[in-house]
Amino acid sequence: MSDQNITKLLTQLHEALQAHPQLDDESKGMLDQIASDVAELHKDEEQHQALSDKLEQQAVEFEQAHPTLSEILRQIVDTLGRIGV
């Protein structure tokens, strides 16, 4: 169930990125890196807290300008928290 939720949220993140072409390259790069980190989570236990912190920081930065992206990032943080990450 958790892997399916993460996969679904990552798909939503990618779709939202495609729907927001006005994002600057730095933001797109950071979100792509976050998606990659989440996808690779099961391989490196030490990166869990750093990833959660990065996701939360990016969600806060997108709160006003990109609320859809912010909500998806918060859902990823929430899902990771529920599975103990």
Structural notes for this entry:
By secondary structure, the protein is mainly alpha-helical. The protein has one domain (2-82). The chain is built from 4 helices and no strands. Helix 1 (2-19) runs antiparallel to helix 4 (67-82). The longest helix is centred in the first third of the chain and has 18 residues, at 2-19. The protein is globular. The chain starts with a helix and ends with a helix.
- Counting structural domains, the number is 1
Shape: globular
Radius of gyration: 12 Å
Oligomeric state as shown: single chain
Please identify the structural class as seen in this structure: mainly alpha
**Helicity, as a percent range:** over 70%
- Characterize the main sheet: none
What is the count of β-strands?
Answer: 0
Average pLDDT works out at: 76
Element-level helix/strand string: HHHH
- What's the number of helices? 4
Distance between the termini: 15 Å
The unreliable regions are: none
Report the β-strand fraction as a percent range. Answer: under 5%
